[in-house]
Amino acid sequence: MLSFLARRLLSTLPVLMVVAVLVFLMLRLTPGDPAAVLAGDAASTDQIAQIRASLGLDRSIPEQFGIWFANVLTGDLGESFYYKTKVTTLIGQRLEPTLSLALVTITLAVLVAVPLGVLAAWRFGGWLDRALMGFSVMGFSVPVFVLAYLLIWLVSLKLGWFPVQGYRRLADGAGSWIYHLALPAVTLSVIYIALIARVTRASVLETLGEDYIRTARAKGLPESTVLLRHALANAAVPIVTVIGIGVALLIGGVVVTESVYAIPGLGRLTVDAVLARDFPTIQGVILLFSFVYVMVNLLVDLSYVFFDPRIRY
Amino acid sequence: MSAPDFDSLSVEAASVLRQPSAWDRVRQSGSVRLGGLVLLLLVLIALAAPWLGTVDPSLFDPASRDLLPGKTGEITTLEGETLKHRFLMGSDSFGRDIYSRVIYGTQVSLIVGLFTAIVAMALGILFGLLAGFLRWLDGPLMRVMDGVMAIPAILIAISLVAMWRGSLSTVVVAIAIPEIPRVTRLVRSLVLSIREEPYVEAAVSLGTPTWKIMGRHILPNCVAPLVVQGTFICASGILTEAILSFLGVGLPPDIPTWGNVMAEGRAQFNEYPHNIFFPGIFLALTVLAVNILGDGLRDTLDPKMAKRV
Fold first, then answer.
1. How large a percentage of chain A has pLDDT more than 70?
2. Ordered structural domains, chain B, with CATH
């Protein structure tokens, strides 16, 4: 197990390395002088020269990459051009809202999607199954911001149940925190529910055809035990996998959802940085999101041991 | 005793034996019909945009700002002529006709969807063939693809557009790039399995040049899964373009796209939700149609893939 862990950790390094190179090159492949691009439209020649020197743009590209990468490894993501603070500080300030939104969304999505998927597979071809499949196509098609505005209009403006926008810190009270997160989390969870429910249904459907299910039923186990202990437990690996892959979808959704609901998190920071062409911040956020995505999928790989005892590393 | 009627017998046997072709199955699929029909309707709307009671989508009139749907107001043409115009979907805060902008926006969305799919498929097929055939290139190329896949798609798209500045071609390329790895992986895996087939081995041993094997033997076998994949890329391309425009990093705001109309309507959503709902309905309907079409194509053309999802 330990040697597997070490090997699996090592295997993420090339991917992360490629991500770093790509993020670095994105800026260098911009047509024109990167220093002028970084300085913005209103910069003077002096400022541009200063930026060029501070970035070490007079050096060769591999050298530049080496310096930048060494800084990244020591946890230095550079300084934001727009906010004039360290990118790491900026990310630290924006971490809580995004993390809260993501965790509440994942919890909600799993709690709704897995039971729905199991029930749909149990009553394969029934009304719930057909409704779920219809919902999942809809969930993939209705854009997250259209859904966000639909919910704001219906639930906040017409019914007045939830606040239209904003975020409260967890430290200011859990009630107010979840009250402000409820609508954004519901919005963001729809596409995730569609994805997880669909895979749960397919995976459980497959295990329900196995001989041990027939045996379990034949020996008179209650149907709930058959579904949960025998069918779902054996269908877990694809479900956990899709929850991990879906995190990419979630990150894309966070950028849009935070923008609509005015949540001051990393997604909002990304959009603001892009609008201000604040490249160190863009690079930092992309690196962080990609790192999280790779790590989540590493954890998913490791969790197979837990969900399927036949798998031994 | 008469001689057996061989002719009718053979016709009967043939009709029993004749397997429905892939094309027959596609045509009979309800999903393909439904999705295709809605999509066809949208294509017709896009083509006929000037004749559907629209005005120039960039025209505005300060006297007709923030009209509710169905209200009649005035709009001034570029020649300075003031026309009475019925604002079917209301007007925005500049006094532009939302109906015209949404109808013309159909053109932009369909073009972006189509070209995103074409660009992503073309590059994905190229890389996939290269990785499948040139063994020394396989490792490095696929590691790069792994890296691209590790970065959430929307982040690649918005940062590329931010650097290149939004135009139709940069937006299409920026949206297509994160889609390339999936096509590459698909083509590569197809190449690796098909090249083990006896007919490919036979072609190789006959001295057929590699490019001819790729074109004559490998690619035709990739068509079905690629069509399915292309449909889904088209749907996600339309969605991503709308998201980019909505966030203000896509096509310039004066170009009538659904995302731009919605971005313009954000500030006054509480009073005038129609600014967001009408383009939103068109967007959701379009993506839904393309996705349903894709599901139908997958179920009929690619049964192996249908089983997996």
1. 92
2. 27-308 (1.10.3720.10)
